[in-house]
Description:
The model has no long low-confidence stretch (mean pLDDT 93). By secondary structure, the protein is mainly beta. A hairpin with an 8-residue loop joins strand 7 and strand 8. Helix content is 0%, strand content 39%. It contains no helices and eight strands. It has a single domain, classed as Cupredoxins -  blue copper proteins (Immunoglobulin-like). It starts with a strand and ends with a strand.
Amino acid sequence: MDNVTIAWGDSVVWTNEDAESYKVVPFKNGQPDPAITWADLGPVGTPTANSAEVVFVWSSGMSKDPIVYEYGIYLPGTETPKATATITAQIKV
């Protein structure tokens, strides 16, 4: 899993290449946010191995500085992420 930088308005799709299911969960204040799941990924080769698009939208009042979103990939029912990464959303230059 790599850290990525995207422009506001771009979307992200996660693809599971493992035989196990995973949850993609954003962090809030350095901890997984239990109220939000970005994606539920089924095992590789299943119709749910790819997530729906998650669009990162900038709106009026938000900082024009890049915003870094940290997230983790979890096996359902576990509290420790298998992996973590970041998505940095910024104004396209």
